[in-house]
Specification:
There is one protein chain. This protein has five helices and three strands. The protein is of the alpha+beta class and about 110 residues long. It has a three-stranded antiparallel beta sheet. The radius of gyration is 22 Å and the shape is elongated. The mean pLDDT is about 90.
Amino acid sequence: MGALYELCDGTNGCMVSALDIISVLPAKKNYTCDAVESIIYALHYDGYFDLILSERKGEKTYVITLKEQGFAFKRNATQKQRDIYFRIFLAFIGAVATFIFGLILNAIF
């Protein structure tokens, strides 16, 4: 979804081909056009965007119109990252508090 959001560039929608999407995806994994197509359909079924199939110069293209959930993708990703950082911070505070509590108990007994 991040690649599609980037290709739409904050607008309501865009017209992209599978090769356009593959060019934006990380090179760590070798994506095929079939894999990208199945991912696009899965995101469409999840309600991120409306999808219309089209053809441009003999090449299969996708006309993507972002829905509310698609626009909220970046915000949700940022929120998840904040939640992870908060949980790590909370675990650290808990570890420090437990350590201090243990020192106090050792000093008393």
